[in-house]
Each structure stands twice: as C-alpha cells, then as structure tokens.
Design a protein that fits this description.
By secondary structure, this protein is mostly helical. The chain has helices spanning 4-15, 22-29, 39-46, 57-69, 80-110, 114-137, 144-161. The chain contains seven helices and no strands. α3 crosses α5 (80-110), α4 packs antiparallel against α5 and α5 (80-110) runs antiparallel to α6.
C-alpha cells in the first residue's frame, strides 16, 4: 500500500492537472456504440482483447485474496500470482497510454491543423519514450502506476515549456 508521501504526491498531481479522468472525457465527448466507456470496453476499438492471465479488476482482487490466503512467495519474482497481477497492472498502464493516443488521433481528425497534429504526436512519442526509459533505467522495478505518474509529470513540464 502506498505510504503517506506517495498519496500526497498523487493528490498534488490531480490538483495540478497532471492526471486527467479519461473516462469522463470519453463519456462526455464521444459516442462509441459500445455497452460502456470503461477501459476494457474501449480497448476493442484500439487494441483488441487482452491476453493477460488476470483479466480485470475483480479478477485481480480475487487473485490477490488467494495470495493472502496462501502466499507461495513474498513478491512478483517468488509468487506467480503476484506476477500475474503486476503484468495486468502494467498492461492497464500501457492500454491507458494507447487510449490517450487513440483519442488524440480522433481529435487531430476533428481539428486538422498540421502543427497541432505534429505537436500531439510528439507529445505521445515523448510520453512513450519516457515510460520505456524508466523501464530500462529503474532496476528497483517501480510499479507501472509510478512509472506512468513520472512520465505524466515529465510530459506536463514539457507541455508547459511549449
């Protein structure tokens, strides 16, 4: 569970507008012809079905409870169930980034300014590069959520300089 400092940092990111609610944006701005606007439903439009062992939040909670009831290890390297949850969470972060890229492409089609399109594509590429750079550099294996928060903070700083 995150410590108090981490929770305060996350709250600051929300207050500063670093983190946005993509669900709210999707629901209020786009008709998709699906039964909902959740990430798993939207994935059908931009990436297809997942192939992770853990299939959703409920499944993740079930697997975690099974680990609590009978731990076979103490971390992702020593327990297969914890590793499956880690992979699911990392896939969620990747999917969120892909959703944002998909949304930006739709925005660019609606506002066909070449300068705007190039800027949005550059920002997406920078966010992806930052995420991958953290993946390579960080030997401590930060959680995917923390990697995404760091990438989003860096992206906000870059946008502010444009």
């Amino acid at each position: 569970y995150p410590d108090e400092a981490w929770a305060q940092q996350l709250e600051r990111f929300v207050e500063e507008g670093v983190l946005v609610d993509l669900f709210k944006i999707l629901k209020n701005s786009l008709g998709v012809g699906l039964s909902g606007y959740g990430l798993k439903k939207m994935e059908l439009l931009f990436r297809g079905a997942r192939d992770t062992a853990v299939s959703g939040a409920q499944d993740s909670l079930r697997v975690y409870q099974a680990w609590l009831d009978d731990p076979q290890g103490f971390d992702c390297q020593s327990d297969e169930r914890l590793e499956s949850i880690r992979i699911y969470n990392e896939d969620d972060c990747l999917s969120t980034m892909l959703l944002l890229k998909w949304m930006r492409k739709r925005l660019n089609r609606a506002t066909p300014s070449k300068e705007h399109s190039e800027r949005e594509e550059l920002l997406t590429q920078l966010a992806q590069a930052d995420y991958l750079e953290h993946e390579r550099k960080d030997k401590k294996k930060l959680t995917p959520e923390m990697k995404m928060v760091k990438a989003l903070k860096k992206l906000q700083n870059m946008v502010a300089k444009l």
